[in-house]
Design goal:
The protein is an all-alpha fold. The protein is built from eight helices and no strands.
């Protein structure tokens, strides 16, 4: 005898769950609100860019000649990302440096 812990949805129920395009899109700050409450905005964006590039903190540190510990502290909001460091990240990730400040 098998026991199902999750309810399965029929195709008709799934069709009802579809959202209009404007309901699926929300601002990124709203989507990451709980992270922004705990970490700095620049740190969250740094982590997102690093994860998109599929890099570890150590690998990013080696490429930019920064210690892994500093990258960890910046991502966790314990160390501010200065203007020069933001410019290094921006050149590496090909984006505007102001997003990390």
């Amino acid at each position: 005898m098998s026991v199902h812990t999750k309810a399965r949805r029929t195709r008709r129920q799934v069709k009802r769950l579809k959202f209009a395009p404007e309901e699926r899109s929300i601002p990124w700050r709203e989507a990451l609100k709980e992270h922004l409450d705990r970490y700095s905005e620049g740190g969250v964006l740094l982590r997102a860019h690093r994860n998109d590039a599929k890099l570890t903190q150590t690998a990013l540190g080696n490429k930019l000649k920064i210690s892994q510990n500093h990258i960890s502290e910046m991502e966790n909001g314990k160390r501010a990302i200065g203007k020069e460091m933001a410019k290094k990240f921006a050149r590496f990730f090909k984006t505007d440096y102001r997003m990390f400040l």
